[in-house]
Fold this protein.
Amino acid sequence: MRPTSPEYKGQDRRAGRSDCLTGGHDPGLLDTSKSNRGSRRNRVRPARVYTCVSKPPTELNRLSRWAPVFMIAIGLALAVSRDPNALLLPQFWAEDGRVFYADTINLGPVHALFMPHNGYFHLVPRSAAIIASLLPMNVAPLVFNLIAIAASLAPAAFVASTRLAHLLPSTRLRLAMALALIAAPNASEVRTHVTNGQFELQILAVLVLVARWRGPASPVFDRAALAIGAFSGPFVIFYAPLFVVEWLLRPASRDRVLAAIVGVAFLVQAASVLITAPTLRGQAIGASPELGAALVGGKIVAVTFLGTSAYEHLYASGATWILALLALAAGVTLALGLAKGSPELRLFILYAGAATTASLLLPATGAIGQPAWTVLADPHNATRYYLPASLALLATLIACLASKWTTAARTVSGLTLACAALVACPTDWKDPPLADLRFSAWVEQYDQAPPGSIVRIPINPPGWTMTLHKPA
């Protein structure tokens, strides 16, 4: 039976742009007569009442409306304060120059765009290289850095918006979670490097899957963000099953376009991994309980809440038992999140667990002659792989503060988050500066080289080179 309340404007579907909020039942539609009390056939089921408001009741303030813009401005300022040279003295980093920019120059933009690297496709780095190739080579590193910064700020702006108000009704809590995304101590490798920006884009894709539409622009943004993220790394393989769960549990929020994007991206990336990745995996894992404690208790927990220097001290001193206790605490925290958290929090924890497990079982460190876990356990190597797990921990603790869990749980969560904000973030605030390899001078050498010649340009990290074939 359709509700007859004059406030009804439509169901609260994902595509329901009226922002209708369900609440209670309409007593006028209940048949409470004695003649019908004992007859199940004659009973009228209570109908839902949909109360329509222009905005969610908890978001009727200007701070909430402008929170995404505010977060982008703050995030940009914080990114510059972490690494001013990202804008003042931009340098190519690793695959940004050696693979993506070089492929675009040497092979052409169309050929390079459809080339997999490390077993999967990279839409954003390839697109960044195409844009940079249309501009003078001097500004190419700056283009890469700006796109990487934009990718790192997008999840924070999304969290700060009202799209996740059904999970975090308080604007202050959403801003806190957005700041956690920007200030995460173990994210230095993803903030200004397009190659590693895929990790931030996957966080945005997962957030899109659990968000609610609010306005006609929401579906356009969601489909674009999901397509960009899904074709910019292998992570769609991990969150595609979660999308299926969301599809089954929430029939009213189904969107066939999103389903098509996830399905096609899953097939493309999975096929690419199965076909090309076996030829790229020759490194021994070298797993051990001690290294496992270092990876989970150190790279995830200690770095997130105490900073890299604290983990470096624990790792150098061989305090495996402390790292094991930290790993156990993380496991208990995430287990509580799975047991008591919202469905969306559970999906995010499951995604983070799948992505982290895959990075441990199928590592791509690039180191030759060393076991993968030994390389990964180094305090300054491959911190990007642990970003999803760190964010899952932070999200669980913030959700605990916003919930009705026990006072002890909220107190522990608050103290732990305070450690992250007051200890880990300040000590890890500055990103390691890149070496000045005089990129402009090498660009001049490339410009003066005769057509058809090969120019090798040194890039960061030191020892890497970018080989360019000047067109004839």
